[in-house]
Give the backbone structure.
Amino acid sequence: MSHFRIVPAGDSALIVEFEERIDPAINARAIALADLLQAAAIAGVRDVVPTYRSVAVFFDPLRTNYDTLLERIERDAGRPAPDAGRQAEPLRIPVCYGGDLGPDLGAVAAFGGISAEEVIALHASATYRVFMLGFVPGFAYMGIVDARIAAPRHSTPRVRVPAGSVGIAGVQTGIYPAETPGGWQLIGRTPIKPFDANRAQPFLMKAGDAVRFYAIDRAEYERFA
Amino acid sequence: MSAVIVLKPGLLTTIQDRGRWGWQAQGVPVAGPMDPCSHRLANALAGNDPGAATLEVTLIGPELEFEDERVVAVAGAEFEMTVDGRGVPANSAFVVASGSRLRFGARARGSRAYVAVAGGIAVPLVLGSRATHLISAMGGLEGRALKAGDRLPLGDPMRARRAMSVQPLTPIVALPGTHAHIRVLAGPQQDYFTHDALDVLQSRPYTISHQSDRMGFRLDGPALAHARGADIISDATPLGALQVPASGQPIVLMADRQTAGGYPKIATVIAADMSVAGQLGPGDTMTFSVCSLADALSALIAQERALMAVEASAAP
């Protein structure tokens, strides 16, 4: 049973903070709380946002019963943690590693003192947890990456990272859903779109999902794309 | 469908509604008006629903041509405005004839004005909102600021309520000159700072730097010292939060803020003062004072009452 505290963020948001660690069990608690509060459809609540180890509840203070909201959060946050290991079948995402699609593959290999093939094997052999989404629409912060390939982000971010780029930043891995600036080590690219506003399901992933990558060659990438 | 044609776009004119709430868990920023009060006032005066999309005008206004007769209202920053060469008042509804041109001139006060047109700007909804988010190129017209030649479809004014025919109103939010006093509530992470940091925050004015935009106001002023480092595990980013990176210089998170950030937040601007803050621009200054939750809520209730009174008098 982990601790939590509820802190106000101005007059229109409350943040529920769990222990300050990146840990699947703590993250599972945050997501479970967010799901409960979302499902409760509390009058005046505008948005419920789980992160690595917290949940933000955004509300309209003139249309929300503050005491009821607080009571509800306290009750639901105190519930026993769900089993973080009990995840659904992982979502499988194809990646064309290296070459011009993954310009930092060599640098990540050098970081770990291993070959590029080993970097690919390590990245594609783990099942990652989606801890949270943020940065831009559909960007999933996934982990935990093997220590041998957990290269730190670039000190100077790239001005343009192409959409679909798969990157590593320390123990985190992620896919850039759109062309944006970015500092992560780019090891490959996926033809799959994590976010497409015109799709029936705009977002491929949600917090708490399990994800596995698998390697495809350039020809397969071009066929997908 | 009838439309507004953009003849000149102005410095930064975007389509905004109340914002894209409900998708932050998927990383979708809220966006919406920098001055929510003036956006809502403009809609009320034009006889629109508060959820209708308006044009947010920034510092230098546009020139617009209307394809058909429409009721129009502009609230927020004070500009000289003319329709076909004749002056029109702010904070009041006026009628433009088919083919009329609304031209913005010199700006007297404030940074952002809202142009509401009866029927609302009817670009398609993206995830339930028409608000433009510039960085993620979402909503509005192709997710970008307006440019010359753009054609903005308008909603059906027949379904909208009739416009008010009133004398210009006193603005609900007092427009700041080049300085505003902003009230904050401490937190959510004031305990990540030294004990005197909140006093330092209230000690002297902060200047809004030229690297400021709809995402955030980067401030220059007394540095705020962290007690346990400037990095936190990425956390949600409330509107108006003062996040403080390693430099100790706060950044006020504004309408286009990202949904998460990795810096501690010492204090958060109260909802009632966000509209005043949204009227400031680069080079302007702000001072902060910590207030109580009760003060924050009574200020918000006063603002809400004033807005509801206008909306009620505009109702059929």
Chain B has a mean pLDDT of 94. Helices of chain B lie at 36-45, 197-201, 274-278, 293-314. The interface with chain A takes residues 21-30, 126-127, 135-138, 184-185, 187-189, 232-236, 238-241, 258-260, 265, 268-271, 293, 296-297, 300-301, 304 of chain B (CB under 8 Å).
